[in-house]
Amino acid sequence: MPQNEMSNISNPLPAVRFENVSRHFDQVRAVDNVSLEIRDGEFFSMLGPSGSGKTTCLRLIAGFEQPTSGKIFLHGAEVGELPPYERDVNTVFQDYALFPHMTVAENVGYGLMIRQVPGAERNERVNQALELVRLPQMGQRKPSQLSGGQRQRIALARALVNRPRVLLLDEPLGALDLKLRQEMQIELKEIQKRVGITFVFVTHDQEEALTMSDRIAVFNAGRIEQIGTPSQVYEHPATAFVAGFVGTSNLVRSDIAQKLTGSAQTFSIRPEKIRMVEPGTPVQNGWASVEGTIREVVYLGMFTRYIVAVEGGRELTVVRQNLDETSMDVLNAEGKRVQLTWQRAFDRMLETP
Amino acid sequence: MFSRNKSPQPFASRAPLGLKILVGFVLLFLYCPFGIILLYAFTTEETAFTFPPPGLTLDWFRVALFERPDIFPPLLLSIQVALVATAIALVLGSLIAFAISRTRFFGREAITFLVLLPIALPGIITGISLRSAFGLLGLDFTFWTIVIGHATFCIVVVYNNVIARLRRTGKSQMEASADLGAHSFQTFRYILLPAIGTALLAGGMLAFALSFDEVIVTTFTAGQQTTLPIWILNQLVRPRQRPVTNVVAVFVIALTFIPIFIAQRLMQDTNE
Amino acid sequence: MASISSAEPSPSFVRRLSTFLHKHPALVLILLLAVPLLWLGVIYLGSLGALLLQSFFKLDDFTGLVVREFTLDTYRQLFTQANLDIIIRSAVMAATVTIACALLAFPISFYMARYASSTGKVAFYIAVTLPLWSSYLVRVYSWKLILAKEGVIGWIFQALGLEPLLNAILAVPTIGGPSLSVSMYGTFLAFVYVWLPYMIIPTYTALERVPRSMLEASADLGARPQQTFWRVILPLALPGVIAGSIFTFSLTLGDYIIPGVLGNSAFFIGQVVLVQQGTAGNIPLAAAFTVVPMVIMFIYLFIAGRLGAFEAL
């Protein structure tokens, strides 16, 4: 399992540590021998398609699931079979899980009430939490009277008010529409910086993960494919899966790879790194080059996606910003012969065949 | 898109007249008998069911209240049985619903089937089984033998209501409560109980109504005791002052309609 | 919550109990199910088992006492002509009642699901379930009033001058009788009336689950309303109808009140059971008779389960 080096950990005790953790449901290996460390105070994302084990990992941290094998540590202490209510973590649920029979203030104050925090202090902390999520006036409403975005914020306030050391977020933005989601991404990041709590964020949206995270773990089939900063994961995908799942990538295999790099090993190249020039343009040193025919043009407004058929029946996707071209220009490009070039420094050898 | 079918409207938005008439007929069929009983509670005729009644009087209500002391012990017994059977069904039905909803385990399907069995099988089977079992064990017929029979078929009513609510409530509210620091008993008190409260109330009311006028099983488990339905049955076989029976019937309808109506409202409100 | 629980001197007993239970989910399951299973498994199933057991005993004809030895004699008695007649009569009645209930229930269920407004649905639902839960006996009794010779139905026939027709109906052998309230007609009508709500509710539930878009899709694909009805709505409503039929069929098979109160003197299974275990004291034969509806119902439930009826309950 490829993982980036962990040498630069500032706090010797990671907020969360998985040691060879597995969780099996009957025959299904939802989480399969995962080891990871989440540093104290970082915004850590678990990214992967549905069923990749990311949510199960989150539920293992929260204590809703017990590992079939392996050990889980929270701030150095093994949590093992500790029930959720004995763990200093709080969760923002995917469906928010607000209690419908309580007001917003009662929802937010629930954890404090359970901990027998005195009434006056409880009120003050509830109000602070509501202000933090910018819904100070909503205390007396019922959850059913709130919009989806508001419920999401209340769920966040309800978790944060307890000042947990780790906050778990299970695809909390999944049910929101695009605009609201983008707003909340920025807001969540700001809140995280302000409160300084470790955030563990589960998402299947690679853009969301790239935008918000300090580090990302990319999950696939119960295993971690790669852990790294957003730029590491995007620029240096360790496996074909990561290259394909985070952003789009051209995977170049065998014969073409042999011709372009001198080795049959599969490599990936991002569509935006490929330049499209007139055929026969001289190739600079350190650049790869291949000729092909534009087979399809997809006009996307801000930029255009070209699918270019190159020799050997392969296709490469190229993305070009529409700097000078009009839509008419780009659509007429179909069938044109072009030369594709890119800096060799941008293609990535992948470990998996 | 198809010339013969310009609008993709599958059915007219208003019901065809024929259907409405049919619906009206079925509703009439369902409710007319109640009206008839009500009407005959006021008839002046004591021995037959002549329609239309030769005259109307309120006198039978007075007779039922003051001159027929044989009505009240059965009424009291029926209410007591219904209350106790409902209480038992509430506890047992909820326990099964909790167990079934929280985990998947071996035998889960078998238990659901077992809960359903007392109402899926004809009541007479429950009745005669219990009776012969009491006989084999040498037990006398008492208040408790009636209660055992009633509770057995009331369990499923409570179970159905509670499990439906638990399914709707979903696991994540319970998890959220634990996540916020509440141990299992606190979660039960603050989250689960309020969530299933109206389902319990509705289930309890239905169980009460079911038990209050049950006769098929009761015949086998009551021995010499007389519940109100058994009293009515006796009146059917050996009539004495028929309109008084009608008055009692009207009373039984009223006493069961009210909790059923409330239960239905509760279930509807929370379905929204 | 490591930091917080360490701040407390010692976690409360309840909290420790909760944690103990959390670590032993199987124990929780046992605690939850122990009493209910004791009740249903021992009291109820035990009684059923004891009853089944007794059906393998027989009554000594001379002493009138039950001989507790394994024998199939009692079951053999089921196959005497008189008893077979009773079984067939009951099964035919159950089937007819079921069909009649299905026919009456469908239009109103369809109306509720398709045409009623949302408040209308609630009102209809309550209107149908009120009789379902209330006073079985009183509802049976009401038919005694309605069908009596001098009662409403008789009056209507008289008013319309149709008395000869009524007399002709009542003169039909085996199902007729001196008046509607002492004939198979009465038995049938009361059965249909009493069990009808049991058919309406599951049929309505099944119809309600058919999404509007599915009907629109059918129309969009060129189906005429009748075709949509026969090819989409009816197949999807069928599990509901079958679920309802479990009740109507089973309840009719075991009932002994209605044929007693509203029948001619032809016996049904339920009445035989009652008489055999009561005045005749022949518990083995009564037990063997109850096995008949049980077997019929198990077969019925098996088929219904295959047809997906349990999802519609």
Describe the overall structure.
The complex is a heterotrimer of chains A (353), B (272) and C (313). Chain A has 353 residues and is α+β, with helices and mostly antiparallel strands. Chain A is 27% helix and 31% strand. In chain A, the strands form four sheets. Chain A has a six-stranded mixed sheet with strand order 6-7-8-3-9-10, sandwiched between helices. In chain A, helix 2 packs parallel to helix 4. In chain A, 42% of the residues are buried. The N terminus of chain A is likely disordered. With 272 residues, chain B is mostly helical. Chain B has a single domain, classed as MetI-like (MetI-like fold). Helices cover 75% and strands 0% of the residues of chain B. Chain B is built from eleven helices and no strands. In chain B, helix 3 packs across helix 10 and helix 8 packs antiparallel against helix 11. With 313 residues, chain C is mostly helical. Chain C has two domains: 56 residues, no CATH class; 234 residues, MetI-like (MetI-like fold, Orthogonal Bundle), CATH 1.10.3720.10. In chain C, 75% of the residues lie in helices and 1% in strands. A two-stranded antiparallel ribbon of chain C has the order 1-2. Chain C has 15 helices and two strands. The chains are: A alpha+beta (353), B mainly alpha (272), C mainly alpha (313). Chains A and C meet through loops of A and helix 1 and helix 2 of C.
Largest interface, Cβ cutoff 8 Å = B-C, 94 and 99 residues
End-to-end separation of chain A: 14 Å
Question: What structural class do the secondary elements of chain A suggest?
Answer: alpha+beta
Unreliable spans of chain C: 1-9
Average pLDDT across residues of chain A?
Answer: 87
H/E topology pattern of chain C: HHHEEHHHHHHHHHHHH
Oligomer: heterotrimer
Would you state the CATH class of the largest domain in chain C?
Mainly Alpha
Give the mean pLDDT of chain C.
85
In the CATH hierarchy, what is the superfamily of the largest domain in chain C?
A: MetI-like
Count of all domains of chain A: 2
The outline of chain A comes out as elongated
Number of helices, counting only DSSP H or I runs of 4 residues or more of chain A: 10
- The portion of residues assigned to helices of chain C is over 70%
